[in-house]
Amino acid sequence: MTTYPSGTSTIQDHSFTSGSGQLQHQGWSTFMNDYNVGGDDGYPPSGTPPNIRTYAWNVYFNNYGKQKFYASADDEGVVKINGAWQFATGDWTGQFSRTTPGYFAPGVYTVSVTVTNSGFGFKFSILWSK
Asked: Radius of gyration over alpha carbons of the chain, in Å?
């Protein structure tokens, strides 16, 4: 299931961020604490796969070119644009600069993050930076 935290409205790229720090953790980077979104679904039962969640936003890219983001996730995350893989987020200990491999024309795109977590809470942070 994909969750659209901001509803169905379109967000301008220069003001796009995943969230406003729903949960704080002393082991996370400042970036992760400031911009995280996600939840706490506990530990998966022994012998079962990890918890996987997807969040998505409709984002308007103003300029032609590769799109740059800062990203992190606990445990790990993948960012897609219109369903096509773009990059892995990096872990929860930093603010990782990521750039899309391809170019995008101005327009509305669905930016999604799929986060995989092996226990406690599933959290990620993403911020458009171009």
From this structure: 14
Give the 3-state secondary structure of residue 31: helix
* Cα–Cα separations (whole angstroms), residue 83 to 80, 86, 111, 121: 5, 9, 8, 24
The CATH class given to the 2-128 domain equals mainly beta
Whole-angstrom Cα distance, residue 75 to residue 85? 18
- pLDDT tens across 28-83, in order? 888 888 887 876 666 666 666 677 888 888 888 999 999 999 898 888 899 999 99
Give the residue carrying structure tokens 């790229």: 13
**Which span out of 13-27, 39-53, 89-103 was modeled with the highest average pLDDT?**
89-103
Helix (H) or strand (E) holding 32: helix 30-35
pLDDT of residue 1: 45
* Every domain of the chain and the residues it spans: 2-128
Long-range CB contacts for residues 91-94, cutoff 8 Å, separation at least 24: 92/25, 92/27, 92/28, 92/29, 92/32, 92/123, 93/27, 93/28, 93/29, 93/32, 94/29, 94/31
Q: Report the distance separating Cα 55 and Cα 102, nearest Å.
A: 22
